[in-house]
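Model it.
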Amino acid sequence: MKLRGTLTEQAYREELKNSKYYLFNDSSMRRFLDIIRRTFPAMKTAHILFWTPEQGEDIISFLVDTDTVIKIELDRSDEAIEPIVDVYPIEFYLKGLSKINQIKIAVALDLAKNDNYTH
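Modeled.
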């Protein structure tokens, strides 16, 4: 998908930059970041794509580098409960997504490519 600099894309770009900062700098995200780092030891960057807060757990999907999406379901109250972790190649993950979600992922991929070149 080709990015055109629309207001929607700009809004996603800002949201994704903020979510990346939150992931790497907020202590409340440490468990998620640890899981991502264990799963992808060579990770250079990650962005939060989708966050679904449930009653007792959080389900968050992350773009890792430019080729993988990891979905983590983590119990909020009990750290002893093993997280549920699903890993998808980006091509597989994109199938069946709505146009608006495809735009968000295209912006995240653009940011991730830039992150990978600056590190």
